[in-house]
Amino acid sequence: MPTSLEATLAASAQRFARDLMQAVRASRVEAITSLAGVRPDVKLHGGSTLPASSAAVASPTPRSGAARIARAAHEIAAEHSLSEREEQMLLRTAHGATRAELAKHFGVAIQTMKLYIRTMLRKLGAENLLDAAARVMQRAVNFP
Fold first, then answer.
1. Are 97 and 136 in contact (CB under 8 A)?
2. How far is the C-alpha of 144 from the C-alpha of 119, rounded, in Å?
3. Is the pLDDT at 35 greater than 80, yes or no?
4. CB hemisphere CA count around 71 (13 angstroms)
5. What does each C-alpha distance from 19 to 16, 66, 97, 111 come to in angstroms?
6. Are 94 and 51 spatial neighbours (Cβ–Cβ below 8 Å)?
7. CA distances from 70 to 23, 56, 64, 79, 128 (A)
8. What average pLDDT does the segment 33-50 reach?
9. Separation in Å, CA 7 to CA 18, 108, 129
């Protein structure tokens, strides 16, 4: 049975890990939005807001931000003959998901997810996940 000190340390470690993952996710989303030139007031699925980027682009209304991103991912997937799973991976990547988060969501090992990602990137002609996500975000902000 853990002592109160051990329980306190365990709780602190969990909070630290959670905060660290949030910081990593925020920095990934910042990099994606910076490359795509997305404004910070675009709302993502779940209500989170994109961080500020250096470029100012006319933003969609907050309620339509997630829909625009989903539409952009769907169009790109159709253009490049992506499977349904690859389209979902692309959409989650545009929202800042990591490889580990993708693997957990789809219930596969990270090594398997790396193979899926490599196949998706090859179809898209993208260099990496950041490039793929930036393409989605760029398309999303250019919708009428």
1. no
2. 31
3. no
4. 13
5. 5, 24, 15, 25
6. no
7. 24, 21, 10, 14, 19
8. 50
9. 17, 31, 38
pLDDT at 5 over 90: no
pLDDT band (50, 70, 90) for residue 95: confident
Tokens for 33, please give them: 């939005």
CB of 25 closer than 8 Å to CB of 96 = yes
DSSP character string of 9-63:
HHHHHHHHHHHHHHHHHHHHHHHHHHHHT--TTPBPTTS-BPPP-SS--PPPPGG
Instruction: Count Cβ atoms below 10 Å from residue 32 Cβ, excluding itself.
Output: 27
- If one compares 119 and 28, the residue with the highest pLDDT of the two is 119
CB 102, CB 92: distance < 8 Å: yes
Q: How far is the C-alpha of 100 from the C-alpha of 111, rounded, in Å?
A: 10
Per-domain boundaries in the chain: 4-141
β-strand partners of 23: none
> Which tokens hold the place of 123?
């179809």
Task: Please name which of 30, 25, 22, 35 lies closest in space to residue 127, comparing C-alpha atoms.
Answer: 35
